[in-house]
Amino acid sequence: MQRILIASHGHFASGLKSSIEILTGMGEQISTIDAYVDDSDYTTQITAFIAQAETPAVIFTDLKGGSVNQKVMLAAAGKTDLYIISQINLAIILAVLLDPAPLSAAHLDELIAQSQVERIELTASADESDADFLS
Amino acid sequence: MQRILIASHGHFASGLKSSIEILTGMGEQISTIDAYVDDSDYTTQITAFIAQAETPAVIFTDLKGGSVNQKVMLAAAGKTDLYIISQINLAIILAVLLDPAPLSAAHLDELIAQSQVERIELTASADESDADFLS
User: Fold this and answer.
1) Whole-complex ipTM
2) Scanning every residue of chain B, which has its alpha carbon at the shortest distance from the alpha carbon of A74?
3) H helix or E strand, kind and range, residue B58
4) pTM of the predicted model, to two decimals?
5) pLDDT for A19-28, tens place per residue?
6) Which residues of A touch B20 (CB under 8 A)?
7) Minimal Cα distance from A80: which residue of B?
8) Which residues partner with B57 through β-bridges?
9) How close B1 gets to chain A, by Cα (Å)?
10) Every domain of chain B and the residues it spans
C-alpha cells in the first residue's frame, strides 16, 4: 500500500515521480494523479488513495488554492493520519520519502523548513575573479 | 527568445511546463531540460539557453546540490542579468512568468517568499462539525 500521493494539474506529478525514480529508485512507492490531461474524473482517484493508503499518509498538491488542491481538501476533510502539503517541490517529497522518523505535523513542518524554494547567488567565473583581483 | 529555463532530473521540468500550459496557456514561453532520461549531454542545452536567452533571464533547477543545479551553476558563473532559483515549485514559476515587474534579485526574493512549500491543515468534515456541535 502507498502512503504518498502527488496530485497536480498536467504531468507535473508524474514528472516528479520520474525525477524521484532517477535519484532514489523509489518511484514505485509514489502514487500520482496528472489531472486535466484528459476528461477523466480524477476525484475518484483521490478518494481511492485515501481509502486504501497506509497511514499516516501524505498528499502533495501542486498549488495552494488551485482546483486540484481544492478537490484534495474536500476529499480529505475530517480524516486523521493524513497530511496535505501544497506548493510542492522535489526537496520536500524526497525528505518525506527518505526520512525514517514517524510522520507528524511538527516533523513535517521541520522538513518543509529545510526544503524551501531558494535563490542561489552566482559565483564569479575563475577568469572574472582574476580580472577583479588584478584591476 | 526565451527568458525562462526549467532544468531537472527526469521529466519534472517538462511536467511543470505542461501544468503551466494548462493553467495559463503560456507554456511556449518556457524552455525545459529533462536530464538523465537518455544519454545526451544536457550541458550543451544549458549553455545554448544562456547564450541565446532574452535578459534578464531565470534558470529554475530542481534540487539544490543536485547534479543538474551544479551544472547550471558552472555554466552560469560570472554571468550578469541571470538568476538561478532552486528547489522550485509551480508557484514560483507562475509568479515569475505572470509578474510584470522587472526582474531583480530583491523582487525575486519577494516572489519566493510568497511561493513557499506549505502544510495545509485539514478542516473537519461537515458531518464531524455537526457531531462536535451536538456532542
Assistant:
1) 0.91
2) B125
3) strand B57-61
4) 0.91
5) 999 999 999 9
6) 10
7) B122
8) B82
9) 22
10) 4-134
A78–B124: do the CB atoms touch at under 8 Å?
yes
**pLDDT, tens digit (0-9, with 9 covering 90-100), for A64-99:** 999 999 999 999 999 999 999 999 999 999 999 999
Distance from CA of B11 to the nearest CA of A (A): 4
CA distance A128 to A106: 45
Q: What is the CATH number of domain B4-134?
A: 3.40.50.510
B118: nearest CB among A86, A90, A123: A86
Between CA A22 and CA B15 the distance in angstroms is: 15
Q: Take residue B116 and report the three cell numbers written for it.
A: 513557499
Please give, rounded to a whole number of angstroms, the shortest distance from the CA of B93 to a CA of chain A.
11
Task: Return the H-helix or E-strand segment holding B4.
Answer: strand B4-9
